[in-house]
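Record type: monomer structure entry
Structure origin: computed from sequence
Chain ID: A
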Amino acid sequence: MSLALSLFAIMLIPFAAAGLGLIHSGLGRSRSAAHALLATLCVLSITAVVFVLVGFAWTGFAGGHSYSAIAGGFNWNWIGAEGFAASGVNFDAASEQITLKLCFHIFAVGLAGVIAIGAGADRWRLGATCISSAIFAAIIYPLFAHWVWGGGWLAEVGTSFGLGSGMIDAGGSAVIQATGGLTALAIACLLGPRRGKYGTDGVATAIPGHNIVLVLFGCILALVGWTGLNAAGAMIFYAVAPGRVVLVVINTMLAAAASALAALSVTRFRFGKPDASLTANGWVAGLVASSAGCAFIPPTAAILIGLVAGGLIPYVVELFELKLYVDDPGGAISVHAGAGLWGTLAAGIFAYVVPGMRGPQVLAQMVGIATLLGFVLPLAYGANWLLHRVGPQRVDRDGDYQGMDIRELGAGAYPEFVVHSDEFVPR
């Protein structure tokens, strides 16, 4: 029962990637729509192959082979030491938990890799996207995934330092969402804003997405994928009983619903009318924030987590766009990094993993957040900076004007229709 249910839940995860692909495509320009979805497919393909060949060896699993070091009287488990190309995995019933973890990671690393496409929309070259995603699947994701899900030092801060049960992240608010979102931040900073986004006076120009219908439909697909993601992660990494999966599904839906309503209310109050794109971002932010503690929190906590995530999204989007001058067409940084970090912290605040250990559990989650900001973000930026020095990741000036579909694919997504003229991009 547990094997079948876990495998079924894993097979729902691609719906989350499809949802994000539609959201990124819809929030970008019409002349880059096909490019965004093809990039999504390419990232899923590249990350799956690279992770099996290289990444899983570094990720490992709890109780498996690993490299560790003694420092300060404690054993720090840093990185997995399994065989490359999954050579040490025995694909039979006796090792079903290991094979399930490998299967889960293949889909999870792809979902995490897709996130950065939203931040690089309308200007990130397809070849650079594929190479960057390969680096992500080989190094960045495996390292942090090992620390949290592979028996690494973040999972052991509970036994080593008495910090609750160690860092918990049932569905990947940190491992999947925050790593992907922080990588998206690195990409957006390296690429720079789209031409026409900021005037000479530094004022941001609103560049509306070309198809909000795709965006809203993507939100529904994402819900299906996230229920599978959260359920599979909880069962595979935290041995949650199959009967408790019902609570995971309920919490996932409640967090998304509360977050969308909060974003809708904030935009209605501030702008006089609700903003569809920010409400959609709020919906996904609720899904993201729900993941870490989905199996360990009551439904009322899921609602509160969603309300905070959705209420903050419009302000975080404005912070990056208007104050920090980071052009993020898909809202990937705010939704996945911002809500991912909040969800990671919220798991410590609301989860009832170890009674009477709420304070230490919060500290364990904060250690994980500090690691994301202090190690994963610089690593992602440094790796992509080196890649950018070898070959520019951004399309040339003609590509900015023509759009990614014509420039890189040779054909538009809507060949039988006249696309909107682009008054935002000077020739």
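Annotation 1: The chain has a mean pLDDT of 93.
Annotation 2: The CA atoms of residues 128 and 392 lie 8 Å apart.
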